[in-house]
Amino acid sequence: MSNEQVAPETSGVTVKLLATVDLGPEIEGMAGRQLRMRMVTIEPGGVFGPIHDHQGRSGTVYILQGTITDHRNGVATDYGPGVGWPEDRNTTHWLENRGTIPAVEISVDIVRQE
Fold first, then answer.
1. How many domains does the structure of the chain reveal?
2. Mean pLDDT computed over 76-87
């Protein structure tokens, strides 16, 4: 296992729930699921870990500010403002902010209702 597959626990991360939509009444077959939008802020040196997957909760991410380093499959990729990435059932990763300013992303995903 490469070093990229070992991630520290989450630290320096703030998550703010922005909106949800109950998908059950909206789309046949989606009972018990919701569309969720969150704003995630990762402080400099912060980590959104540990390594996790997105099976059963597909989504997309869009970077508003700063740079987020996405670690997956032993590869570290930097994403800056105006860029994002998909998180599908094959996504297994962790995130960090190697920069000097807070990194802010908008995350939209489909999750089981709590």
1. 1
2. 94
